[in-house]
Amino acid sequence: MGTHTNVVKAVLDSRVDAGIIRTDVLEKMQEDNLISLSDIKVLNTKKHSDFPFLVSTELYPEWILAKTPHTSEYLTNEVLSTLLKLSTRPKTNQEFRLTTPIDNSKVHALMKEFNIYPYQKEPYTFIDALLKYKYFFLGLFIPFIMAIFFIMHIQRLNKKLREHAIEIENFNATLEHEVEERTHQLTLLNSKLKELANTDELTRIDNRRHFFLLATQYFYSSKRNNLELYIFSLDIDLFKQVNDTYGHAIGDEVLKSFCHTIKEIIRQSDLFGRIGGEEFCICIQNTTLEGATTLAEKIRESIQNTTTIVGTQELPKITVSIGISSIQKGDNEIFDIIKRSDEALYRAKRNGRNQVQIILK
């Protein structure tokens, strides 16, 4: 019906028996003298502590940020990062303060249950397969037609079959060699495509999607085997000033140098991924809190003391703030740990940057 207000009016006008609206709509309409709450019955009324509005379902958190489909992931993360940074140092006349988003897993579960984007499941038909693999089917059809004409030609030239037997054998050998060569090329191409799909193009470390995929596997392995697992949230301090002062080309070199330094320190079994912009995550297993803290301090000191020269130009010095959290018994997914490590990171930012902060629970 266009708006939630129209839904309420339709119920009151008896055009429909019941309607679904978001919380606070009824209270706002009564405040505007559009309705009286005494005229309305809320089905399946529930109570939630510290929640003042009428509600009949579980509470679902609102998204901290929404984007249109054509907006890039990079731009979205940049905007969100900027809003969070503004909130860590609010001005006296600032009317808003953005806090760390609460757990949205309930919303994701609801979207999966109702097959809402991006979890919708559409049937895969023969037409879909035909359109997707049209060149493959065309490639099969053409050899099929050629084979028919070839058989007809063989029948006409049956008397000359013996004379051409050696030539045909040579042709088959050549064809087999070409097939093996093409198969090898396809194998190399598939390997390259897999690497491109899982790797951040600039820094050559795991991209956001692949890091979360591997970290989720580490999470369930740690839960099953009762192993320690730690998440580091890293953010380069004042990286925007580097881009504004030296340009994005130098900023890209700084990011590559930053990742190279960390890769030289962490173990081969440790996961290291770029989450967005200048934000990174590390996932480590089989270590103690003391070991994780020591590793984080080693990374922080190495970044602070690293000097990199590209061509003839020395890159600007940078520092990094790091937040640490570990797996807990009540955690249901890897994002529960990441949420706490992000909170520890913001604490490090608020306390002056270039430091390590820990939040375990």
TrEMBL record:
Domain of life: Bacteria
Domain GGDEF: 227-361
Bilayer-crossing regions: 135-154
SUPFAM superfamilies hit by this protein: Nucleotide cyclase (SSF55073)
GO cellular component, one term: plasma membrane
Entry-linked PROSITE patterns: GGDEF (PS50887)
Keywords noted in UniProt: Membrane, Nucleotidyltransferase, Transferase, Transmembrane, Transmembrane helix
Pfam families noted in UniProt: GGDEF, Phosphonate-bd
Keyword Mitochondrion (UniProt): no
Catalytic activity as recorded in UniProt: 2 GTP = 3',3'-c-di-GMP + 2 diphosphate
GO terms assigned for molecular function: diguanylate cyclase activity
EC number: 2.7.7.65
Biological processes per GO annotation: cell adhesion involved in single-species biofilm formation; negative regulation of bacterial-type flagellum-dependent cell motility
Classification via NCBIfam families: GGDEF (TIGR00254)
Stated name of the protein: diguanylate cyclase
Upper taxonomic lineage: Bacteria, Pseudomonadati, Campylobacterota, Epsilonproteobacteria, Campylobacterales
